[in-house]
Amino acid sequence: MSVAELKEQIISNLNRIEDDSLLSDVLNLIKMGEEIKPTYKLSTAEKLNLDLALQDVKDGKMYSDSEAKDIMKKWLKE
Description:
This protein has 78 residues and is mainly alpha-helical.
C-alpha cells in the first residue's frame, strides 16, 4: 500500500470516529511520531571500521581506561 493510500485510509477512518478521547489519543500519537528522529544509517566505511574495532577487542588489542590515561599522560609530556 502506498503512502498516499495509507493517508486516505487513515483520514477516512478518522472522519468516522466520534470518541473525543480516542481522537485525542490519535493526535498525541501523531505528535509523538513527529518528534521521533530518523535512525542514523551507518555507511559501508563506518560498518567496516566498527567490524575492525570489534575484531581488535576480540584479539585483545585494546587498553583499559587507566592504561589509556597513562599512555596519554606520557604522550603529552613528550
